[in-house]
Design a protein that fits this description.
The protein has about 120 residues and is mainly alpha-helical. It has a domain of about 70 residues: Winged helix-like DNA-binding domain superfamily/Winged helix DNA-binding domain (Arc Repressor Mutant, subunit A, Orthogonal Bundle), CATH 1.10.10. It has five helices and two strands. The chain has a two-stranded antiparallel ribbon. A hairpin with a 3-residue loop joins strand 1 and strand 2.
């Protein structure tokens, strides 16, 4: 896995696992690889993956079942989408709209671009 400098590695791993859940790699109720298995799979320190799993558990995306491992929460997809929407609306949208304003893109042009995007 290639990591970016702008965000902690454990959060990037949590995002990757969230992406995998959204893509259906791990379905709600399914077991995810053990911390050790995932660390080997993406070639990172075991403790980093453990921190990612703990974070996902605190967000309500993973459930830990003692002696069995980590499982995808039943409402994980909805939780991930809600968290990402909130993040986009609170920070990502501001950056996007500021760039559009700086470039002189009108609200009408943005709306048309978005409609064209949805048609594809």
């Amino acid at each position: 896995m290639i990591f970016k400098e702008r965000q902690s590695i454990y959060l990037q791993i949590a995002d990757r696992i969230s992406d995998e859940i959204l893509a259906g790699t791990y379905a709600p109720g399914a077991r995810v690889p053990s911390v050790r298995e995932y660390a080997v799979m993406i070639e990172v320190n075991l403790n980093t993956v453990m921190r990612s799993y703990d974070t996902l558990q605190s967000w309500g995306i993973l459930d830990m079942r003692r002696g069995l491992g980590y499982f995808v929460a039943d409402d994980a997809v909805q939780t991930i989408l809600a968290r990402r929407r909130e993040s986009f609306m609170s920070s990502g949208a501001d950056e996007f709209f500021e760039t559009a304003r700086t470039l002189g893109i009108s609200p009408e042009e943005l709306a048309e671009m978005y409609r064209n995007y949805l048609k594809r």
